[in-house]
Automatic annotation (TrEMBL):
It is found in: Membrane. The chain crosses the membrane at residues 21-42, 54-75. Keywords: Membrane, Transmembrane, Transmembrane helix. Residues 1-90 form the ABC transmembrane type-1 domain. GO terms for cellular component: membrane. It comes from marine sediment metagenome. It is a multi-pass membrane protein. GO terms for molecular function: ABC-type transporter activity; ATP binding; ATP hydrolysis activity; ATPase-coupled lipid transmembrane transporter activity. Signal peptide: none annotated. PROSITE patterns: ABC_TM1F (PS50929). This is ABC transmembrane type-1 domain-containing protein. Pfam families: ABC_tran (PF00005).
Length: 185
């Protein structure tokens, strides 16, 4: 329960950061564009705004609008870079969690005298299998199924009926309470 609550707090923090990043970036770039626009307008009204150091000709409306268009395009690029930083930090966090999960040692270990799987015609069988997630939560009771190599077997049933539990018992993600799961006998 503590792990779930901690994960939920992290998700909420991440959502809040994403929710704040977009308006903050938008406000910053809008203020930057407005500041440049006001400064350029002030310089144009005083006659001090020129095309560049090589010419003293005042800026025309066309040159000013071309400059303003390039400024707005640069602001859009700045927004995209800010969003990229948010996505990158989320990806980095997800990668850390993934590698932490991969480093966890398995809790179920095969015995030293475990059989290796032979090549050939394979069959998976559940023989009178019982399984429970806890002492008072039986998921499967007396289930017997056999699936041979090349057969198509469908597990059909209502939600919570044990279909996923059956599939999780085959690779020993869980151990059975009763019965046996066998591969090739």
């Amino acid at each position: 329960a503590a792990v779930v609550e901690r994960r939920q707090r992290h998700l909420i923090k991440g959502s809040n950061a994403r929710a704040m990043a977009a308006p903050a970036t938008e406000t910053f770039t809008t203020l930057l564009v407005a500041l440049v626009f006001v400064y350029a307008g002030w310089r144009a009204t005083t006659g001090a705004l020129t095309v560049g150091p090589l010419t003293l000709a005042p800026i025309t409306a066309g040159v000013f609008f071309a400059f303003l268009t390039s400024l707005l395009m640069a602001a859009q690029s700045l927004r995209q870079v800010a969003n990229l930083q948010t996505v990158f930090s989320e990806g980095l966090t997800a990668a850390r969690r993934l590698f932490a999960a991969l480093d966890v040692a398995p809790s179920i270990v095969d015995p030293a005298d475990a059989n290796t799987l032979p090549d050939g015609d394979s069959a998976i069988a559940l023989d009178h299998v019982g399984f429970a997630y806890g002492p008072d939560a039986p998921a499967l009771t007396d289930v017997s199924i056999e699936a041979r190599k090349g057969e198509t077997v469908a597990l059909v049933g209502p939600s919570g009926g044990g279909k996923s539990s059956i599939l999780n018992l085959i690779p020993r993600f869980y151990d059975v309470s009763r019965g046996a799961v066998t591969i090739d006998g």
